Amino acid sequence: MSNPKPDDYILQLENISKYFGAVIALSDITLRLRRGEVHCLLGDNGAGKSTLIKTLAGVFTPEKGQYLVNGKPVRFRSPREALDAGIATVYQDLALVPLMSVSRNFFMGREPVRKLLGVLPVMDHAQAARIAAQELAAMGIRVRDADQMVGQMSGGEKQCLAIARAIHFGAHVLILDEPTAALGVKQSVNVLKLIHRARERGISVIFITHNVNHAYPVADSFTLLNRGQSMGSFAKRDVSKAEVLDMMAGGAEMQKMMAELEGVTI
Amino acid sequence: MSALLSTPHPPPSTVAPVPASDERLRQVGRLRRLLARPEFGALSGTALVFLLFGLGAGGSGMFSAEGIVNWGTVAGFLGILAVGAALLMIAGEFDLSIGSMIGFAGMMLAIPCLYWGWPVWLAVLFAFATAMALGGLNGWLVVKTGLPSFIVTLAFYFILRGLSLAISVLLTGKTIVSSNGDAVLHELIAADPLVQALFQGHVLTGLFNALARLGLLAARDDGAALAIGVPKVMVWWAALTAGGAFVLARMRVGNWILAVGGDANAAKNVGIPVARVKVLLFVFMAFCATVFAVLQVADAGSAAADRGLQKEFEAIIAAVIGGCLLTGGFGSVIGAALGALIFGVVQIGIGYTSIDNNWYRVFLGGMLLAAVLFNNYIRRRVALGR
Question: So which residues are the signal peptide here (chain B) (predicted)?
């Protein structure tokens, strides 16, 4: 694991704005992801997280500002182009099909092919099953049977499968859209461990969440969003968890609300 | 894989700590695996139907060579459609226009042959081209508009039936066409070596005759077998089923079909050309309908604008009995072939018994309902483990 170099950015959004008609979804946002770091994007509901992800993923093109990959300006016209540039997004719906097997899902759209009798191109199921099991094992998930249907897996396992798949297919930047939102405590920890492992493999991660308790342990830095605006980016050493939470929820107001509910921490 | 599965689960006390994901995974046995296969319902349905008719009509000649050819032909015709319907349903779509398309494609073969003086092979190509273009149009409209295929193809169900009738009346003055002056459709087809070889008559006639001479098959007075041979429709049925099953299970496109039907959005997000897959399957469905039409015209020696009535429903029923989910993403081509087989056996077999013919629809309706309930149950309990 190499420590992120101070100004080696793999991905940058510089002063990005995005409008939907009269709605200002994003206003003058700057987000810089260092190579090999985990950068947490924090914001409450309606903060513009989804719009920002879709801009990063190539679904939306911003009206103003610049998008740079490895320091070079890019303009993605489709998610496919972002994917080809090594930027993989794992959405909350995970792009998994429950009634298909683990290995069929893992290679969905990118099936390994071998020649049957030297001519007929067929899907290499044996190789698909082997690689899927291997890649999941490398991420600390044991799948006994790669022919098992994805619908039988738990939410955490599905999340891990989607992440492992993105990594296997050459993601340099992994954008995770609230990967822990629908998960229980233990499963959330598993996903956090997975994010840590991805970082160890040199992958840069943008981790979107509204849960500071999940964000703080794995993140190297944070960007806070509130109502379409950035409240700034911070390195972990410069802020405490309480400060992050304060900024995210609007500071003093949140303190007051929490004081009324004894013992509450979020 | 199976060796891995048959290994008994070690007692928990002796296992090293396993990841949390493993402890709730039950050992899946062979039976459970079989149950989880989409065609299991159709397989047990087929067994049931053969058992019933074996007991009820075993001595009636239903299972003689002629009897088998009889219900095999009915099953074969439907089975050809069921291959297309199953693949399309697995990809999450229906085509209600195929019945009308059968009548239409038959006309597109007969009219050029008889009235425009085209060679038969060219007319066959023309029928395939027009029908497949219409199938493509069906698919394109579904994909482009995002409307349910139910509505779009229902429109074509009426459009194509109306067109077949209107065009045949306009060009020939009739709705059933078999000859025009000296030109007789049956003779024209028999005289075209390629079309005759592909679509008309039987195969293995020599073998059947030889078996009859040996006394193994029932013979006519002249010593030839009573059953002429295996009708070519059954050969098409077998070939299309084998091809469809192979594509679905083994080829990349098969994985795409499953993904597109299972979750079109997920499929799109991983880069599968969802629209192309769907349109292609509509075109293939039209291909199957045209194969049906050409075989029927070659067999009957005539084309009629009202051919193929209700075939769209029968094909869907065969696919559903075969384990295809109406919502897509799950199903089997082999199962659909078994569904068609059940259809043929029941429809023809009931004539070999003392039961009134009209009961066959009741039986099929009941079978359909049972199949849907059974398949839903199996999918929930076994495939998804809920």
Answer: none
Q: Does residue A98 belong to the interface with chain B, where contact is any CB pair within 8 Å? A: yes
B43 lies in some domain: no
- Whether B67 has a pLDDT exceeding 70, the answer reads yes
Contact between A144 and B254 using a beta-carbon 8 Å cutoff: no
Q: What is the Cα–Cα distance from B134 to B141, expressed in whole angstroms?
A: 10
- Partners of A190 on chain B (C-beta within 8 Å) are 20-21
pLDDT for position A59: 84
CA distances (Å), B300 to each of A87, B102, B167, B331, in order?
A: 60, 14, 20, 33
Tell me whether residue B15 is in a domain. no
Quick one: how far is CA B313 from the chain centroid? 11
Cα separation, B332 vs B337, whole angstroms: 9
Residue in chain B nearest A190 by alpha carbon: B20
| Residue pairs between chains A and B whose CB atoms are closer than 8 Å | 107
Q: Could you give the ipTM of this predicted complex?
A: 0.81
- Which residue of A95, A121, A143 is in closest CB contact with B270? A95
Band of pLDDT at residue A22, cut at 50, 70 and 90: confident
Cβ pair A104:B384 closer than 8 A: no
Q: Indicate which CATH number applies to the domain containing B86.
A: 1.10.3470
B81 is a domain residue: yes
- The larger pLDDT score, comparing residue A59 to residue B89, is at B89
In the predicted structure, residue B25 carries a pLDDT above the cut 60: no
Q: Which strand (E) or helix (H) includes residue B310?
A: none
User: Which residue in A152, A175, A188 has the most chain B C-beta atoms within 10 A of its own C-beta, making it the best mutation to test that interface?
Assistant: A152
CA atoms within 13 A on the CB side of A5: 5
Decide if B21 and A156 are in contact by the 8 Å CB cutoff: yes
Task: With respect to residue B112, please indicate whether it lies within any of the assigned structural domains.
Answer: yes
**CA dist A153 → A103, A187, B265 (Å):** 13, 12, 20
Host domain of residue B150: 63-202+231-381
pLDDT tens profile B224-250: 888 889 999 999 999 999 999 999 999
| Percent of chain B surpassing pLDDT 90 | 61
Task: Give the number of domains in chain B.
Answer: 1
Rounded CA-CA distance B169/B175 in Å is 6
